[in-house]
Amino acid sequence: MTGYDPLVKRLLDGELALAELPPELQAEGAEALRLLGADRRPVALPAALEARVMAAVRARAASPSRRVLRWIAEPRELRLRVRPWVLGAGLAAAALVLLLRAPGARVSVREPGATAARAAAPERVFVRFELYAPAAKQVGLAGTFNQWDQAATPLVRAGKAGVWTVTLALPAGQHQYAFVVDGRRWVTDPAAPAVDDGFGRRNSVIAVGGTGARAL
After folding, report:
1. What is the pTM of this model?
2. Which helix (DSSP H) or strand (DSSP E) does residue 196 occupy?
3. How many CB atoms lie within 10 A of CB 188?
4. Is 171 within 8 Å of 122 (Cβ atoms)?
5. End-to-end Cα, the chain, rounded Å
6. Can you tell me the distance from the alpha carbon of 185 to that of 197, in angstroms, rounded to the nearest whole number?
7. How confident is the model over 19-77, as pLDDT tens digits?
8. Contact 140/150 with Cβ under 8 angstroms?
9. How far is residue 104's CA from residue 125's CA, in Å, rounded to a whole number?
10. 110-to-7, 44, 163, 168 alpha-carbon distances in Å
């Protein structure tokens, strides 16, 4: 539309009617509308060219890669049949896993009663942890056996004043741990050896075996 009067451009944009143009611009506007109408006439393709184009489109749509893509993208309904006895066995297995992950730690040791059912299970030993902290309001136990979660294994006050204690079932092997006093102060076990954790802090160490627990 380069070269047309701004009012004629507004006419071509549909903002004005031809009769709304000044008399001296109406002839120019009519010619512009005629040219615009000629440009908008449909273009008819030769029948042979149209047939070749449509054949190419159909061949492309029928290619193996296109069929695979359509199959992947097409939504499908998925139906699952769950048998009650299979679901019950799965829930029992999940409950067993949760029971076997019970946390644990140090001091007086006794082994669980040996039965035929436990013979095939991983060997575990009961370990009692104690800490003398008379000024503490709460004490937790964090270690390799509970992913160092200081809130996972809280200690409780024992009969003796200032003594905190907890008993855990630990699998055989070496475990590192520390007491957490009032949620912020990490304290090593004075009754066990300690090692550097590599981050500037010391952890207590205990070894649990088939005959009990011992300090390293």
Report:
1. 0.43
2. strand 194-196
3. 18
4. yes
5. 92
6. 16
7. 998 999 999 889 888 887 755 555 566 788 878 888 887 777 666 776 777 777 777 66
8. yes
9. 9
10. 101, 96, 20, 11
